[in-house]
Design goal:
This protein is α/β, with parallel strands linked by helices. It has helices at 29-41, 57-68, 70-73, 97-111, 130-142, 156-168, 192-199, 234-239, 247-264, 268-277, 292-299, 308-317, 329-334; strands at 3-5, 12-14, 16-19, 46-48, 77-82, 116-121, 146-152, 176-178, 202-203, 285-287. The chain starts with a strand and ends in a 9-residue tail after the last helix.
């Protein structure tokens, strides 16, 4: 397992993180505990959960495992999130001081810990001033309840605003951003990745396998079925990766992933994960396993080294779609210049 710095912080995490959204839902507690044990045994040290996963049950399952395995728990870097509703009241969601105070205390209780290493804001809150959120997070760090903080699902301008407001206010700065990112969904490379690189923010991609598409489980002439992060709706499954006129891109990507996988004697999932882990600004890729077998296959990506030719093929075939402007060749030329001058 490879280890990397958590953004610009001094913390070190494994390049493959264990996502626990399946815990208490698609994976029962016995399976979830076995998954955690296998992950740690493989050298992983980065657990990712959230208060809304199974309405708190995921955190509870993780907390019970940590309490029962103090030796292994001592080496775990633990992250959870807050933002989405955990109640029906007007202050039971969002990034206000009121909700974050309640959410943090509840997560600490469910996880059976006194300190959370990385506390992530699950999404932007248009009603709460960002200064209020940042001051709460800085206070939580000073109180010893969290070590670092980050964001999830923020747009580029939202991330940049938060970074610069934290600096202007003299507060602790964010260290991570958790976006959707995979071979099928690369739109974040237009604005979000450059914003993260500029600020020294580490990316923690979720849905690295595109809701199962990048595992090869779906075929051109077959209707998608079965559980995935995108659900069972076949239209939703494909439409998530572009309009109907862009679906040939999806199949071209899958064909390329399959070709590379066959060349390495690896699974398509391993190839997709290895490509993503090698992308700029990526700190750790979230694995969302429903079974020990699925986790074992995904963890093997840590030992897969794609050649420069493999990376070039996958990067070229999966190039994100864009309009003529403000993205594209012409617009890109306007953002750069030759040091020697000229037209």
């Amino acid at each position: 397992m490879e280890y990397r710095r958590l953004g610009a912080s001094g913390a070190v995490v494994s390049s493959l993180a264990l996502g626990t959204m399946t815990f208490g839902d698609e994976a029962d507690e016995a399976t979830s505990r076995a998954i955690m044990q296998d992950y740690v045994a493989a050298g992983g040290n980065f657990f990712d959960t959230a208060n809304v996963y199974s309405q708190g049950l995921s955190e509870e399952i993780v907390g019970r495992w940590l309490a029962d395995h103090p030796t292994e728990a001592a080496g775990v870097v633990l992250t959870t999130k807050a933002r989405f509703p955990m109640g029906d009241g007007p202050n039971d969601l969002g990034l206000s001081r009121i909700n974050l105070r309640k959410a943090l205390e509840a997560s600490l209780r469910r996880l059976k810990v006194e300190h959370i290493d990385l506390y992530q804001m699950h999404a932007w809150d248009a009603l709460t001033p960002i200064d209020e959120t940042l001051r709460f997070l800085d206070d939580a760090i000073s109180a010893g309840k969290i070590g670092y903080y980050g964001f999830s699902n923020f747009l580029g301008w939202q991330l940049t605003k938060a970074v610069h407001r934290s600096r202007a206010l003299g507060l602790a700065a964010p260290v991570t951003l958790q976006p959707q990112y995979n071979l099928l969904v690369r739109d974040i490379e237009f604005e979000i990745v450059p914003a993260a690189e500029d600020a020294g923010i580490g990316l923690l991609p979720w849905s690295p396998l595109g809701g199962g598409w990048l595992t090869g489980k779906y075929q051109r002439d077959a209707t998608p079925s079965g559980a995935s992060r995108l659900g069972d709706n076949p239209d939703r499954g494909m439409e998530a990766y572009g309009p109907r006129n862009a679906q040939e891109r999806t199949w071209a990507i899958l064909d390329a992933v399959k070709k590379v996988a066959e060349g390495h004697g690896a699974s398509m999932a391993q190839v997709a994960l290895a490509w993503l882990a090698a992308r700029p600004a990526v700190t750790s890729v979230l694995l969302g396993a429903r079974s020990r077998e699925q986790l074992a296959d995904n963890l093997a990506a840590a030992d897969l080294r794609l050649s420069a030719e493999d990376m070039a093929l996958l990067t070229e075939v999966s190039a994100p779609l864009h309009n003529v402007y403000p993205y594209g060749t012409q617009a890109d030329r306007q953002r750069h210049r030759n040091i020697s001058g000229g037209r």
